[in-house]
């Protein structure tokens, strides 16, 4: 589809959240189709996890987004989908790879939303494909267990914060879940949640550096808990780390099922977004350093630095591999 | 993409206007891409005409719309695009052809919106394809000239109208053209206009028969005049004819460029929409007869009857041909 | 236009904010058209004030909203517009008056947004109409001056609040102003701001009473400061008063022009919204009493009580007058 002014910031760069939403919609369609391809109970595929996603080049208003999706692995109860997004300038014909994302879906019964159904197995062209898929499956399973544990954190408000501190740029929004945000089962589409998360993370980044910013990458996101129609969701973001030219923002999604349900507010999703600041010519700009004040802020900064260095090392290893 | 509650009426049937908008977006992308495929001035393809379109089967919330487009003819200054829409139930795997539409686009220079550029010719697999395309091209050209003349009509309000008269169901809406309604050239997308026209026609139909209604077909629509960002558009509809099970509604679009331009309000588009009324089981229901009062209303009723009988005769001829 | 699922809450009642947005759009169109009706500099009418608006009856999904607007007074630099909203059930034909609103607009030059142009005078049918209009004009002018002074207040966050306290239900959201939120001059439509204000107020009300709630009325709103494209706006709401069956919520809108402008965050708008809680049958329900803790909260509660009693007295006077 053609990118509109509403999909972009005032510099004309399409929001990362718009792209994440398109990716998730493509993934939900292909995996729901696959899981219903055999006779048996009908189901809807629900997003369980998105692997780390890099935004390789910015997309602009007026360009056409081409989204293609393929199922690359199936376990007994989950489907791995690979989605590629190409941006196409239909005036010049130029095409660029914008995103490569890997998503995991789980089929939930239409009759009983708490029942996970079995996934019809796919055929692999080569035995190694299955083995590699299985390895990826085991890795993400482990990672999901880990993140389930570090979910208690809350973003506390700060009165009269200094510029460039954590409290200065932290932001949150509330959103009442409407019918168009939801699947047939009445639960929020993962893509809708990710779009709101990117919106908050982008505002945190812009408040910190006061320039034009774009999403550079999103760390793996796990969707532990479903969010129901009629909930109010609170999406909060705080900066955790800055390198010379990038900012890492942690985003929480909390759901408040306050109408006709006795349940407490709960943490539904959390993730790390990385943003860069761009000049008018599209070059990355230096970013003001984050000022950490409390012990917790300093600890989170060090953890963010660890993630940053790890990613950098991985990328260099890949480039060396590619050069050989 | 997946059909959402907002794309549909309260009975769950997707609005014809939503489908027309998707069709036009696909047509605009493929024809803009084609017209820029040769070196030369950049351009944007603008919708000039949509041929008569039938809605073969209703689409529902939760189904996926698959839209495919193909260029089927090029004249020196215009492109004919054929768009097919399939509705796919991803739970059952069932697919149905929903629409087959033919659209004509004209490439306008990005630098000078009043300059029509030349279209790169396409290759035809067989000589007959080119000849048939040329015939369709000549036919639509003639038809566009004709409609250009009957555009002076205005819908006047009626005080205390009786049920089932023309005045009783006639309706209009105004819309302020915003940035997301527009192409790169700052003119309203044809698809946006068609969606508003379908909305008004649907309200006219529902007011007349007070049941669940769906778009059955749209007569050829000619886009004589562009509509610019910042205009206010008035979309008005009145019923012109009823058969036993269908209603014909005439819709006008008038543009009011009241800011920063000295121009008068002008008629931008007009078209005939046909609606049917559906029972809860999806069966067509009888429709109350339209009560005509003035001479003009009687004349328009007869003209509508003429179009209805002509379409019916054409369809029977096609069915006989198919049966042979 | 037809009310869609996204225009309403999960009980099917259309959000007050959706209606306020339609009202403002109609007012902006009619007043911009009027102010450009004479030769001279082009302009866009900007919303300066909305008088107190009552929501007389709820509107539902599937109903058609009929909005009509009329210019009722012009001063040298401002236009008074009266807007009526009728809800029409197109299946039964039943029509109900939903809202009667009065709005004030000011024409701003398209070339220089800080220049207020002169308004072409309208003709009055009777001299008394002009005199009454002038009286309304003077009254609102006075009121605008007053509210300009009480704007310093800030909503501070509360840690671990008790149910039914002010801190428990207070809420805020952030919104990045996009192109579709703005007029031709690049400033946020008043209607967009009112819709966000109603969204926050509704969430505050729902958090307090945990039932289905609808907007009952909005006090006069003054738009002192324009909000520019690219700003982040923070909309915050807190409950100030509860009667047996109604809740009053104060809403602030602050604008943060953080990209490419040196300006500080400023208060753009503030207003009081009144909500009622409805049972499944549409009857008003009792509301839990607001627990006030600080001196400021107690003072605001008393002020809210004053407004409540004043409105009640006015309504009784009107009913007695109508009965005579």
Automatic annotation (TrEMBL), chains A, B, C:
Localization per Swiss-Prot or TrEMBL: Cytoplasm
Region (Disordered): 295-324
InterPro entries registered for this protein in UniProt: Cytosol_ACT, HOTDOG_ACOT, HotDog_dom_sf, Thioestr_dom
Gene Ontology CC terms, in alphabetical order: cytosol
Biased composition (Basic and acidic residues): 296-306
EC number(s) given by UniProt: 3.1.2.2
Highest taxon in the source lineage: Eukaryota
Keyword terms of this UniProt record: Cytoplasm, Hydrolase, Lipid metabolism, Repeat, Serine esterase
Any GO MF annotation of the entry: long-chain fatty acyl-CoA hydrolase activity
Ranges where the HotDog ACOT-type domain occurs: 1-111, 167-281
Gene Ontology biological process terms, A to Z: acyl-CoA metabolic process; fatty acid catabolic process
Positions of the catalytic residues: 9, 198
Full protein name: palmitoyl-CoA hydrolase
Organism: Rhabdornis inornatus
Gene, per the UniProt record: Acot7
């Amino acid at each position: 589809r053609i990118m509109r002014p509403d999909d972009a910031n005032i510099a004309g760069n399409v929001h990362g959240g718009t792209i994440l939403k398109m990716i998730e919609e493509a993934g939900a369609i292909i995996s729901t189709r696959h899981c219903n391809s055999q006779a048996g109970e009908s189901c809807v595929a629900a997003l369980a996890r998105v692997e780390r996603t890099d935004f390789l080049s910015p997309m602009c208003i007026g360009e056409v987004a081409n989204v293609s999706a393929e199922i690359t692995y199936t376990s007994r109860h989950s489907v791995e989908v690979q989605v590629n997004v190409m941006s196409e300038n239909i005036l010049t014909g130029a095409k660029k790879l914008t995103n490569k994302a890997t998503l995991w879906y789980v089929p939930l019964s239409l009759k009983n939303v708490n029942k996970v159904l079995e996934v019809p197995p796919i055929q692999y062209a080569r035995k190694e494909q299955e083995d590699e898929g299985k390895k990826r499956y085991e890795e993400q399973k482990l990672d999901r267990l880990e993140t389930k544990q570090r979910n208690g954190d809350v973003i506390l408000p700060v009165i009269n914060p200094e510029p460039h501190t954590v409290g200065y740029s932290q932001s949150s929004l509330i959103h009442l879940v409407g019918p168009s945000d939801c699947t047939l089962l009445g639960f929020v589409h993962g893509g809708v949640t990710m779009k709101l998360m990117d919106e908050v993370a982008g505002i945190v980044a812009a408040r910190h550096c006061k320039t034009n910013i774009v999403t550079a990458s999103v760390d793996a996101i796990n969707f532990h808990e479903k969010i129901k129609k009629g909930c109010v969701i609170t999406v909060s973001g705080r900066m955790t780390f800055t390198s010379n030219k990038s900012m890492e923002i942690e985003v929480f999604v909390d759901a408040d099922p306050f109408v006709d349900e006795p349940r407490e507010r709960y943490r539904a999703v959390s993730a790390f977004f990385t943003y860069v600041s761009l000049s008018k010519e599209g070059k990355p700009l230096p970013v003001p350093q984050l000022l950490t004040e409390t012990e917790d802020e300093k600890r989170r900064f060090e953890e963010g630095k660890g993630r940053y260095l790890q990613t950098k090392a991985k990328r260099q290893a890949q480039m060396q591999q590619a050069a050989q």
